[in-house]
Write a structure and sequence with these properties.
Layout (H helix, E strand, L loop, with lengths): L2 H4 L4 H14 L2 E5 L8 E5 L8 E5 L3 H17 L8 E3 L5 E7 L2 H4 L1 H7 L5 E6 L23 E3 L3
Organism: Amycolatopsis mongoliensis
Protein name: DUF4262 domain-containing protein
InterPro entries: DUF4262 (IPR025358)
Length: 154
């Protein structure tokens, strides 16, 4: 965990988030991996537009931030992806969208700003062979990308 996550007085950090969201429309909150926990990242600010926040697990934070920023911009200008949708990315990668079962458990700072009723979608990415985490042979069985919801969940 980071200092801001563990700090009981988050007021200064929350104000910086509010200011950043006001200036840009959304931000990406990254969480570095440690031990057996992979890195993950999520948007903060899409809830302000009535949209679900977006989450990525198992990618290095800079890669996750790039993906989240691209899809957040798309969500604001077009529409957010829907649960169960498969989205091809530049470079040939593929993601599948999964609705988070309990966003309030995972999106600490989005919840702090918008409340526990926020909605969120996970962008689940296929491995280099095009296999998703629910496939037993994904990443040769090594895991590394927790799925935080149920496939095709409404």
């Amino acid at each position: 965990m980071c200092f801001e996550c563990e700090n009981p007085d988050r007021s200064g950090y929350l104000q910086r988030l509010r200011d950043g969201v006001a200036g840009r429309g959304w931000l990406v909150q990254g969480v570095e991996g440690s031990g057996s926990y992979p890195p993950w990242a999520y948007t903060v600010g899409l809830s302000e537009y009535g949209l679900p926040e977006l989450v990525v697990t198992g990618l290095p934070v800079p890669d996750a931030a790039g993906l989240l920023n691209d899809l957040a911009a798309h969500s604001l200008h077009e529409s957010p992806p829907s649960s169960g949708e498969r989205v091809p990315l530049r470079g040939g990668s593929l993601i599948e969208v999964v609705r988070l079962a309990e966003p309030s458990v995972h999106l600490v700072f989005a919840v702090a700003l918008y409340g526990p009723e926020i909605r969120a979608l996970q962008l689940v990415h296929a491995d280099s062979q095009g296999r998703f985490p629910w496939s037993p042979d994904c990443r040769d069985g090594r895991g590394g990308q927790p799925v935080l919801g149920v496939r095709g969940g409404a």
